[in-house]
Design brief:
411 residues, alpha+beta, Cytochrome Bc1 Complex, Chain A, domain 1, 2 domains, 5-stranded mixed β-sheet, 15 helices, globular
């Protein structure tokens, strides 16, 4: 049995993945993120995530933080452009604590003004720290280029000005408009009787009022490729190159994921790493990434190198892209790539917290979570012809946007 799903009348779903273990990994995921913020409210979804841990109707900050830690558990959260996630890892007997805390944080937080002001200071420090890391900042600026003028281009943290101006009513309104109970799911991976688990789940979450607030996500229809250089107080040159790509619901998504893995995925033997780092010693870090959203996506390549080597690095990257656009993968090369990719997927499943989060997101996005066998089937179905077609679409030189952070010229 891979997993089971149970849905309450208010729309909140439970996804249960059984495993033989003394440890439970669990999460609550809300289909609401920074792209759902109103204009001028940049950083609001992330601000809410911080404040959920500050005070509820029945717990203060200390009680919230101690509730799971007192029994050896771990609690954390994060915000993306489309999701808010709170997750916990805990010994099996204390699952009720984790679920009770999720319900309290998400549906009974009070957002006191004094905590809001303190947390604004924390986030302003986080923004400043982020801006001091060019390898991180360039990724956000790149997304702002390819999604120019769209919510998806905005930094999840917001800006100093927008965060300072956030008010309590902004938080309350965002929750009302975006925390749709039919788009909230709880994932549990552990060793339980499913009937007893659903009873516990219902006891905790059935009292949550049904909320069908519909978010208005506008499509990102405008894209104009460009080359942009920006001088920064840095010692190295940082570069991101990329293009718009496929959404979560596009049937080419699996093939692009495989192609991304071939080009610059998480391995020392990727083409970019081998050619540019190992062969020429130009860049310490070089990687490619493919990120899919509900209605769009983007592909990008990042590297950092010495200023005098930047042009050579860009030339070598383009050379690798040209190879994939001009030459179809041989049957042997494709099979090796599939074997490597499916092996990495299988190893990633060993991280049980990440797995239950991924499965719960899939329940929200697709109404189901693929088994590992179904994922492997999709990978094995990818053809060399499709890889070539995608390479010519996504790596089209006339459609690539390039952003370069370079050291400021000395006066």
């Amino acid at each position: 049995m891979e997993y089971q799903v149970f849905t309450l009348p208010n729309g909140i779903r439970l996804l249960y993945k059984p495993v033989i273990s003394s440890v439970t990994h669990t999460c609550i995921i809300i289909n609401a993120g920074s792209r759902d913020e109103a204009t001028g409210k940049d950083g609001l979804a992330h601000f809410i995530e911080h404040l959920l841990f500050k005070k509820t109707e029945k717990r203060n900050t200390r009680q919230i933080l101690n509730y799971l830690e007192a029994v050896g558990g771990d609690l954390n959260a994060y915000t993306t452009k489309e999701y808010t996630c709170i997750h916990a890892s805990i010994l099996n007997p204390y699952l009720n604590r984790a679920l009770d805390l999720f319900e309290d944080l998400v549906f009974h937080s009070t957002f006191p003004e004094d905590e809001m002001e303190k947390e604004k200071g924390v986030i302003l420090d986080e923004i400043a720290s982020y801006q001091d890391q060019p390898e991180e900042a360039i990724q956000d600026d790149f997304e702002d280029l390819i999604y120019a003028g769209h919510r998806l281009g905005r930094n999840i943290l917001g800006t100093s000005d927008t965060v300072k101006n956030l008010q309590r009513d902004d938080l309350v309104n965002f929750l009302s408009e975006n925390y749709n109970t039919e788009e909230i799911a709880i994932g549990v991976m552990g060793n339980y009787n499913f009937k007893k688990l659903t009873k516990l789940f219902a006891q905790i979450f059935s009292g949550v009022p049904h909320n069908t607030g519909k978010k208005q996500r506008s499509p990102a229809n405008t894209y104009l490729p460009e080359l942009k250089r920006a001088g920064k107080p840095i010692n190295q040159t940082h570069c991101v190159m990329g293009n718009l790509a496929y959404s979560l619901h596009d049937n080419k998504r699996t093939a692009l994921s495989l192609l991304n893995n071939i080009l610059g995925g998480n391995s020392m033997s990727s083409r970019l790493n081998f050619e540019i780092r190992e062969k020429y010693g130009i860049a310490y870090t070089i990687e490619s990434n493919y990120l899919a959203f509900s209605d769009t996506g983007f592909f990008s390549i990042y590297f950092g190198t010495d200023e005098e080597k930047a042009n050579k690095a860009i030339s070598l990257v383009n050379k690798e892209l040209n190879k994939l656009r001009d030459t179809k993968l041989t049957t042997g090369s494709l099979e090796k790539a599939k074997k490597k990719f499916t092996g990495q997927i299988a190893l990633a499943e060993e991280n049980r917290l990440n797995l239950i989060i991924t499965m719960t997101k899939c329940l929200i996005d697709y109404g189901k979570a693929d088994t590992i066998e179904e994922v492997f089937e999709k990978v094995h179905a990818v053809s060399s012809e499709l890889i070539l077609e995608i390479a010519n679409q996504v790596f089209d030189p006339s459609q690539l946007t390039t952003l370069i952070f370079e050291p400021e010229a000395e006066n």
